[in-house]
Structures are given as structure tokens and as C-alpha cells.
Amino acid sequence: MSHRSLFAGLALLIGASLLIGAGEVRADGDGLWLIAVSRAPRTAAALLAGAALAVAGVIMQMLARNRFVEPATVGTGPAAGLGLVAMTLLAPAAPLWLKMLAATLAALAATAVFLLMVRRLPPRDPLLVPLTGIVFGGILGAVTTFVAYENDLLQYIDIWMTGEFSGVMLGRYEFLWLAGGAALLAYAYANRFTIAGMGEEMSRTLGLSYGQVMALGLGIVSVVTAVTVVTVGMLPFVGLVVPNIASRLRGDNLRQSLPALAALGAGLVLGCDILGRVIWHPYEMPVGTVLGVIGAGVFLWLLHSPRAHAV
Amino acid sequence: MPSRALILAGAAYAASALAFLTLGARGDWGFLLLFRGEKLLALSTVGAAVALSTLVFQTITGNRILTPAIMGFDALYVMIQTALVFLLGGVGFASLGALPVFALETALMVAAATGLFTFVMGRGDDMNRLVLTGIVFGILLRSLSALMARMIDPSEYAYVQAASYARFTNVDGDLLWIAVAVVLAVGALVLAQARRLDVLALGRATALTLGVAHERAARRLMWLVTLLVAVSTALVGPIVFFGLLVSAVTYQIAGTWRHAVLLPLSALIAAALLVASQTLFERVLSLQSSVFVVIEALGGLVFLYLVLRRTPR
Amino acid sequence: MIEMSGLSYAAGGKAILHDITARLPEGRLTVLVGPNGAGKSTLLALLGRHLAPGGGVIRFGGRPLEDWPRAELARALTILRQATRITPRLTVADLVAFGRYPHGQGRLTPEDRKIAAACLDRMALTDLRDRQLDTLSGGQQQRALIAMVLAQDTGTLLMDEPLNNLDLAHARRVMQVLRERAAAGRTVVAVLHDLTVAARYADHVLALRDGRVMAEGPPDAVFTPARLAQLYDAEIEVHQIGGRPVILPI
Questions:
Q1: Chain B residues touching chain A at CB-CB below 8 Å
Q2: ipTM
Q3: In the Cβ-directed half-sphere of C121, how many Cα atoms lie within 13 Å?
Q4: Domain boundaries, chain B
Q5: Model's pTM, two decimal places?
Q6: pLDDT tens digits, residue range B85-140?
Q7: CATH class for the region spanning B2-308
Q8: Which of B95, B268, B273, C104 is spaced 20 to 30 A from A248 at the CA atom?
Q9: Going from the N-terminus, what domains does chain A have, and what CATH number goes with each?
């Protein structure tokens, strides 16, 4: 799959996204306003979130040295939510950026704990890693639900538990550019992450500070996850499925594969969002739910396809 | 002569049951006992169902970090529920009655379990792949349910929502008696196979050498396990990690490998744990939350501990 | 040149190395031999600064090893450990190119590309350069790792069982490369389990047993039946065939 066909496909999706939706778009002032205020920001949000989450996913996979992990499923996502809930309880009037900071810190802590746990797992048993992550994420989710329930915030967490773009408008999504920026940072340091993916020993041999790369990766993953969760909610499977597919198509030399990977992620999320708009037109299905079905399906295929046995 | 552990567990259960029934009671005793009694019965039945199904499942698969629910059966249950409401409408669904729905759901779950199980036995030791498959399949089904749920009229959604989270707030009366009957029957059947389970616990190869048809026995037991899972899910909703907690505690205090002791012990422990924690939540701490959230979190911690400790680096 | 004195290391409550004092000269191919569990791999890991010693001192290039800044050390010393497992999907060319990382932080200059290509060629991997690592045989992967280490172009090379998975022809190729590098003035240290190969190529031998230095010196001093019997607790014959030593257990 060449870069050109990838970006052509993406362009098509962008076009579709601008034209499809609950309201009709006519070639007049109203139509353009609709596009400018709602459709274009929504499209941008989907592209940014998709690209950033895919990049965050591959970074986590390099750090954990395992192909079946991603922030949404191993606890980073739920932790961000927990941070958000905690902040809402402690300081309800806090500005959005402060809430995002709380979410980022919580995500960081949870991911660090997860990676520490991963070190203790036997390398001969690679599937134990995602299993452990899922349970860990489940526990964090349970804690969040408990806290929310006790404080009458259940409705609130429902909003970010399932990601959706229907609320995105001009002025209500700009933080996602931060996530995009984090992904770009990852690209700048792509070689370091590839080396880190080869293990701590190899990193040492090549003179890389494994700890520094870990910290940078943790930071990027946490920021991307927290920003996405707070702005549009949780988008599952993007960080897991897209890197796996990109790896099969282009390998793991991140400096070379990251652009295609980001494009795939952007395309997946935008595609699912468009799907969510047309399945039950004019009603909208949240993109998080659509991703839950499609992403899970692809994950199952990845688990059982012939090349899965060289995890 | 009953083992010490059994006596202790029995006493613990009796004590917590008593506390549950009597603590903080004000007003009409007759009504209260009836009301609480029903709840007590529900808790005990679910506890027993989860405990027995988990224990038997772990013996069959030879793996202590698995529970049958981890395979995604609970999600299958929710999806069937959602699909039925989606297809028949709220009224149509309600008019079906508890028993036919339960029968349908159980039949489908047994079919899925048999399918998954033959898959397991065929694959041998790639347990982790199987469990991961089950979990992801569960997520897939849950998302499908969510998708369908969105297409259901909001007024009918209540039927579906009730099925999605484990709770004890409104246990269906009819269903309770069916559940009790099923659990008692299945429990007796399982207990009758206690000796065979002991042999199965030795592993496939040894079992075959000792003349136990491992596959056949395991498959039959699997049906019983699925029945128990179906019952507990139908009664109170999905429970995934509680069974791990129970089984870990049981093996810890049992002091024997004999299933004749392990089975009733686990049921008593599970029931005692559920009743005691519900009492704690409702009466002492006055928390509104479902006790299950905490119990599942605890069970999850047990899972992590088990996974992380068996790896001497 | 690497000097160590009083080096010791323990892990998991067990002492692995005791009081190792030795000198690994430059311009020489030093071979590390000894029975299983003698501590050879551990010693190499300590020299490569993958582990921190429990006691004693390692001096590298006249300075204490721990004083070397990370990046500088990577340009001066490289180590190939046993059981190196590469999980990312990389092509052979990619992997070898990463060997140049310490010299440019990832931006490959034409000079880098030339060096990488030369190392690929030296390991007879030019035809396999665009193949993915996980589609290769164990021996091919091993050669790719060695090519990467060569591309790093350091003055000191530490290799732990570099001939694993390699057939006769490729093993000989690797030993010849190592000897070339030593002859060019570099410090080359290799752990080898095949004593015949060791005797054939070594300029200097360090023999370990139970975490201690049992013998150190030129090959014909260390590879005598008496010494070897002491080292391996077994009767070992040393023959000369065509002027070359052949070492066999009895």
C-alpha cells in the first residue's frame, strides 16, 4: 500500500465527512457555515485523534515490547478518566486545562505501574501482557465507576466512557491539536523508540538512555490519551489495531512507518465516525461504539491470523 | 467427618446471614424477614453458582487464573437480551415471560460454551490466546449491544439497562426460584462427580491412564458450568472476577485437594463473602453502590497477584 | 584495553564472580573459556556496562568504566549478548544501519551507508538485506546481529558466543573478521565454548571456573591437558593436526 493511495483514500474520507451528516449541505452561506463550524472541526478532530492514538499505541507497544497493548485497554484510558473524575470532585470550577492536567498525571501514573508489571512477566508468554493490562484497566474502571456512583457522577463518566464527535464544534476541540503535537514529537524521536523496542540491553549497547526514552514515551502516551479522553471520550482499539496492521504492511522501523501509521489511524477513526453518521441516519452512533465493534473484530482476526504466532 | 475448614466456613456463613437478616431492622419483622430472606437467598444462590462453576472450570482447564465468565459469556447474555428487545420491542419482550427467555439464553450460552470449549481442547496449551479471544469477543458483543441499544426506543431501553450491570436491587422473583432449583440440582450433580474431578485435576494424560475419559467427562461438566454461569448472570448480571477471589481463598484454607471438600467449601465461602459484604455496604457503610463493583475490583487484584507472583524472574 | 581488578558480582543472593583481576590487551583477540556457570557471560555483561559490579574496579581506556558518558562509550565499545531477541519487524539493512546510531543519532550520512553496506557484505548478507528479520533462520539472524555490531565500528568488541547457530563456513568467516579487527589494533573479546576454535584463533586466553580466574595467558600455555582437566573436570586431549591444535574430550 503506497503512501499515495493511502493519502488519496484519506482525502476521499475527508470529503465525505464534510458532506455527510444530520443536516443537509447546500452550496450557500448556510452550508458553508455548517461546514466551517461543525463539519470541518469534527473532521479535524477525528483525524487528529486517530493519528495521535495510533502513534501513542505504537509507542506503548515499543515500550512494553508487546504487540497487543494500547493505552485504551491497559489502564491509561481508564486512569485518565479517574483523574478527570477526581478533579471534578475536588475542584468542580477548575478550568478545562487543569482537568486535562489531572487526567494526564493519572494516566502517567497508571501507565508507569503497568510497564513495571510487564517487566515481571515471562517473555515466553507474550499474551499474558495484554491480559494483565485488561484486568488492570478493568480494576481502574471499576474504581472510577464506584467513585462516580457514590457521588452521583455516573452520567458524567458515561460521556467520556464512549467517545463521540457529535459534540465537536469550533471552539470545542482545539486541545486535540496538542495531541497532534505530541504525535509529531514522537516522529522526531522515532529512532529512539525503535531502538527502545529492541530492548534495554540493545539500547544500552547503542548508547541510548533507556530511562529517558521511557519517560518521553510515557509522557507522549499520557498526554495523547488524557487530551483525547477529556475532549471527545475514549476511542478503543485504535492504538492496538492500527500499529499491528501498519507493522504488517511497512515493518517497525518507526522513522519510515510512522507517517503511514498516523494516516491509517486518522482514516480508521474518521471512517468509523462517518459510518456512525450513516448507519441510522439521521441519528448518530457514537464513534466509540462503532470502533468497539470494528476494532474488536480486527483484533480477533489479528489474534488468530497465521502471523499472530510470531508475536 | 467434616473438615475444620468446612465448619469454619459454615459458621461464617451462618453469622453473616444472621447479621444480614437482623442488623438495623426496624418495623414489621414479618415483612422484613421475607424481603431480606429473599435477598439472602439470591445472594447465597449466586455465590454458590459462581463458586462451583469457577472451581469446576479451573479443574477442567488446569488453570487457576481463569474463570468461565472471563470468556465473555456475560457479554453474550447482555447481547441476547438486547437483541430480543430490539427485535420484539419492550412489550413483546416483557410478554415472553422470565422462563422462556431464561431457557433461550441458557441454550444459546451452552451452545457457545461447547463451541468455545472444543476450541480450547483442540488448541492445548494456548490458554492465554483463548482467554484473550474470549475477552475481546466479549467487548465485541458489548459494543454490538450498545449499537443496538441506541436503536431502541428510550422507553424500552430500561429492559436492556437492567441486564448490563451486576446488581442486587431488583431480583426477579420468578427467576429466583428457578435459579435456586437449578443451582441445587446442578450442585448435587457436580458433587456426585467429586471423585472424577479429583482425577481430572491430575491432568489429561494422567486422567486417561487412570481410565477416566477426559474429553467426555470435561464436556459434560462444561455444560453444568455453563448452566451455573447462565443462572447467576440471569439473576444478577455479569460477574467476572469474583470467582477468582473465592477459588483462591478456598484453595488457601482447604488444606486438601479433594473436591468433596473443595466444592461445598467454595460455595459457603462465596455465599458468606457476598452476604457479609452486602451487609457491610448496606447496613454499616450505607453506600448506594453495588457491592459487586468492589468485589470485582478485589477479584481483579487477586488475578494480578496470581499472575505476577508465579514468575520467578 | 580493559583492566579489571578485584571485580566481584552477586545476584539473587548468590556470588557469581569473585575477585577477578585480569587485563584484556588491545590489538589481540582474547577468548574467554570455562565450564557452564563459570560466570563468563556475567563478566562480559559487566565489561559492557550492562551490569554494575558489586565490588572492584574496571578501567577502560585509562578511565574508570563508570565515568564514561553513555554516548561516548557506545562509540568506543560494543557488546553482543547471547540470546539477543529483536522483536520489532525490521529488515536486515535497517538493523545493521542502527549500528551507526551512536555516531549520528539516526541521521544516516552517505559514509554511514557505506559502512553498513560493507558490514552486510562482510557477513554475506547483501542478498538478504531487504528481508524481514523474523523471516530469517537463526543463523541468518545471528549474522545480521554481528553485522550490526561491526557497523558500530568501535575500538572494543565484546562478543558472547558469537558463533551460535552458525554453520562451519559462516563461523570461520566471523572468526576471521574478529581476528582482522584485532590485528588492526582493536580490543576483541569473545566467549567461546568450542575449544578447538578458541585455540586456533586466540591470541590471549582467560579461563574462568566457579567465578574465579583459573588461568590467563597465551593459548599454548592454557590449552594443555593438565590445565584443561583442572578447568573442566574431565580428561581432555590436545592434538596437533597439520600444525593446528585440535582439542577433544576423551
A1: 126, 128-129, 131-133, 135-137, 139-140, 142-144, 146-147, 150-151, 240-241, 287-290, 293-294, 296-297, 300-301, 303-304, 307-308, 311, 313
A2: 0.87
A3: 6
A4: 2-308
A5: 0.83
A6: 888 777 777 777 767 777 787 788 778 777 776 665 565 546 667 777 877 888 88
A7: mainly alpha
A8: C104
A9: 44-304 (1.10.3470.10)
